[in-house]
Amino acid sequence: MSELRKLKITEMNRLTVEEFKEVDKLPLVVVLDEVRSLHNIGAVFRTSDAFLVNCIYLCGITATPPHPEMHKTALGAEYTVDWKYFKRTQDAVNELHNDGYTVLAIEQCAGSTLLDELVLEKGRKYAIVLGNEVKGVQQEVVDMCDGCIEIPQFGTKHSLNVSVTAGIMIWEFAHKLFKLR
Questions:
Q1: Is beta strand 26-33 parallel, antiparallel or unpaired with respect to 83-86?
Q2: Alpha-carbon separation of residue 164 from 32, 46, 84, 102, 112 (angstroms)
Q3: What is the pTM (predicted TM-score) of this model?
Q4: pLDDT tens digit at each of 181 positions of the chain
Q5: Which of 65, 93, 122, 133 is most buried, judging by how many CB atoms fall within 10 Å of its CB?
Q6: How far apart are CA 115 and CA 165, in angstroms?
Q7: So where are the chain's domains?
Q8: Which PANTHER family does UniProt cross-reference here (predicted)?
């Protein structure tokens, strides 16, 4: 059996903040629609840093950095990942469409695409909209999106925590987009 040894932080070859700011990011924007938990927001920042997300759009009641409670889960990623604030999520979606993004709500909808069936296209830019912890993505926002993606679930619960959903979605987009580079 081979020796399994945890790596020291100095062995991980992580980017510096300056290198992160300069590196080519994924053509992916994460939109948080009325997300209320500072811990969820921080976790989305941290995951977005890990997978080179281009930007996070914080909308409505979603808090913006800096904030000590957000920092507990973001661990500094709120300073590396670019972000923008919009009072209305609809304005964020309009801007994304005007900038050539395909905008997809992460929501359980009639006609949604199951995550394992999602096909991404080389050269396209994508944005994913994640909703409020209780109400999900606002219907008015869903109506503006180019489609919906649903994570297949097999147990008795019909939803996942928004930061868990973000982690699954960001990983899947990163995995597929890195292959298209």
A1: unpaired
A2: 13, 12, 22, 22, 19
A3: 0.96
A4: 678 999 998 899 899 999 999 999 999 999 999 999 999 999 999 999 999 999 999 999 999 999 999 999 999 999 999 999 999 999 999 999 999 999 999 999 999 999 999 999 999 999 999 999 999 999 999 999 999 999 999 999 989 999 999 999 999 999 999 999 8
A5: 93
A6: 11
A7: 23-150+158-180
A8: 23S RRNA (GUANOSINE-2'-O-)-METHYLTRANSFERASE RLMB (PTHR46429)
